[in-house]
Amino acid sequence: MARLAATGAQEDIRLYLAKLVRRYRSSDPVLAAKLEDALKRTAAASGRGAAVLRADTGSTLRSQAIPPVDRDSRLSLVRMFDDRGGIEPPLLPADVLSQLEAVVAERRNVELLERRGLRATKSLAFVGPPGVGKTLSARWLAVQLAKPLWVLDLTAVMSSLLGRTGHNLRSVFDYAREQEAILLLDEFDAIAKRRGDDSDVGEIKRVVTVMLQEIEDWPAKSMLIAATNHQEMVDPALWRRFDAVVHFQNPTQQSIASAIRRFMGADADAFDRLVDPMAWIFSGQTLSDVERAIGQLRRRLALSAITPREALQAMLDERIPPLKKSERLHLAIAWAQSGVFSHSEINEITGVSRDTIRKHAGPANRVGRRRRK
């Protein structure tokens, strides 16, 4: 401890304190309590926050050591999410949500599985485009299992120095294993490329070897999740090590409508009749796109003396032009059937003629007739 203090290695001092707390917790609880108090004070002084994680019951779950850092940059190698106070479930297709719920059920019935000679899923691969809920799903899993989530920070882990990236990875794996946490390797393809890829130097090949060993030996008390947008770039040997692969897709119309209602927050009632027609606008887009657009819509509504329909109209003026002809027709039919806009208004917004709208959606409803009067 004196040598660490002499070199000014504050992060290493806190890490060593945390190890001492765990070492003496059962043999000398009084000393462990004093050391833990010192650890809390050093963490607070450095702005790192409390050093003890608590479970939902309020009892101490596990003394949380300071996360590992890169030796040169002193950047933390992981980002932490502790959502055990609660988080909304991800908006996912039924089959994907069912897969995740099955994993939770396994982890909650580990002893039952072990009595039958089986083991619960301990490693998952999430595959899908950006913005479809991979990270949020990992956070939701962590909440269901009452565990923190550590996310690998690639900007800190990757190093130009020979051997340093592999060393950083091992530090993260050891830390997550020690904390019995859920570790998410986001953008997995960046550090798990095919070893036959001639464009990569030998360092990446060594990193893949490290991960092969870690995934194989990953403990049952923790969970390892790898997320990627490019499955084809990942070394095939790594995929074979994962217990299950979950494929995420762009949301359905129903998922988009549910997302709009959630993202509307306090304005949900004002837009209730507009939600389903609005969902057509975001067809083929991710829920991240939807959340961003709805946030912009709500800010416009809050800062301007306009009605919900006028706020929606402004958003439509910005988003309608890129739509294909077939998409405009679907949108026009949906609005005509909902009664949100008259046929004349739909024609002005989408460019679809009133005769075409009438042909596919039937006569104008009361909203349209009342506007023509």
Automatic annotation (TrEMBL):
InterPro entries: 26S_Proteasome_ATPase (IPR050221), AAA+_ATPase (IPR003593), ATPase_AAA_core (IPR003959), P-loop_NTPase (IPR027417)
Keyword annotations of the record: ATP-binding, Nucleotide-binding
Pfam families listed in its UniProt record: AAA (PF00004)
Occurrences of domain AAA+ ATPase (ranges): 120-252
Entry's Gene Ontology molecular function annotations: ATP binding
Family note: Belongs to the AAA ATPase family.
Stated name of the protein: ATP-binding protein
Biological source species: Aquilutibacter rugosus
